[in-house]
Amino acid sequence: MSEVFSATSADTAVEGAEDPDLALARDGDDAAFTRLIEPLRRELHAHCYRMLGSTHDADDALQDALLRAWRGLARFEGRSSLRSWLYTVATRTCLDIVETRGRRALPVDLGPSSDHTVVGDNPLADVAWLGPYPDAGLGDGPAGPDARYEQREAVELAFVAALQHLPGNQRAALLLFEVLGFSAAEIATTMNTSTTSVNSALARARKVVEEKVPSPTQQRTLRKIDDARLREIVAGFSTALERGDADTLAALLTQDVTWSMPPMAHWYHGIAAVIDFALRVPLTGCGSWRHLPTSANGQPAVGFYLWNDDLGAYLNWSINVLTLRGERIAEITTFIGPDHFPSFGLPASLA
């Protein structure tokens, strides 16, 4: 598949002298190529995450895409910006991965909520789970003038989860059009298809996303909350778990709150079910907790650590992403596993 991309309105090439690093890179200078792509690495990684729903898959996709770009740089004709061309290479790389790995899921995608607390729930290893994304990895690159979603809105859990319900071509078309501001004609070139097909894919994708993504977005909700108040909410949630305080926890939740814990299949809906689960499992049944605040998917998040007697330390246990409605928590998504922590820059243990 050719990786030559025509100029795009999302980032049209600047006329004039060619970047000397580009000429050096074409001649095989890998240091020059690194200088070229380094300013774009973070935003390209975020694009791969939106496509794939996994930080680890995004790591693999970006590495593969940059290798493809390095090998194919001689075919880059300069009719577009390097940034636009790299987005084309990255998108095609992600589409190849989508074809082989399928979509990622959250527990809510697998079945109805549990009507009673499940103690000793076992992880499902045969499910490809959606993962959290560290805000430090969000790209700062500009979106196109016609982009609908801002960069942080486009990594919110609800949006990325909704994308997973789309076939790869619809997913790519929506992201390129609504997040990056590419035109339908430009997307058709990227995906080797017709403008008519792109417009059809966009219409179907928009319908699914509108049905699955609540309004307002988290970014709009968070902008209405004072920073100090937001810290109070996060601290209240965290200390309630550390102290086993069900009353304080309940006061922070909406009546229709949900709590899910990938890779566990069971999830809970409604304050009665959630508090019953909290009382029987994290508040009393797990042991002693400590926490560190962080941020994931453009949302407040907390890294929790669980005491380990054998090692005499608190070990990394889960990244908890909070979805707010007003000043209450409407969703708790607990991503269990120490493998989530390195990308957030959080330590493996606390003394």
TrEMBL record:
The record ties this protein, via SUPFAM superfamilies, to: NTF2-like, Sigma2 domain of RNA polymerase sigma factors, Sigma3 and sigma4 domains of RNA polymerase sigma factors
Q: Which PANTHER family match?
A: ECF RNA POLYMERASE SIGMA FACTOR SIGG (PTHR43133:SF65), RNA POLYMERASE ECF-TYPE SIGMA FACTO (PTHR43133)
Q: Which Pfam families match?
A: Sigma70_r2, Sigma70_r4_2, SnoaL_2
Annotated protein name in UniProt = Sigma-70 family RNA polymerase sigma factor
Similarity section: Belongs to the sigma-70 factor family. ECF subfamily.
Question: Is the keyword Nuclease assigned to this protein?
Answer: no
Q: How does it assemble?
A: Interacts transiently with the RNA polymerase catalytic core formed by RpoA, RpoB, RpoC and RpoZ (2 alpha, 1 beta, 1 beta' and 1 omega subunit) to form the RNA polymerase holoenzyme that can initiate transcription.
RNA polymerase sigma factor 70 region 4 type domain location: 158-207
Q: Which terms are listed as keywords in the entry?
A: Sigma factor, Transcription, Transcription regulation
Q: Which residues form the RNA polymerase sigma-70 region domain?
A: 36-103
- The answer to whether UniProt assigns keyword Transcription to this entry is yes
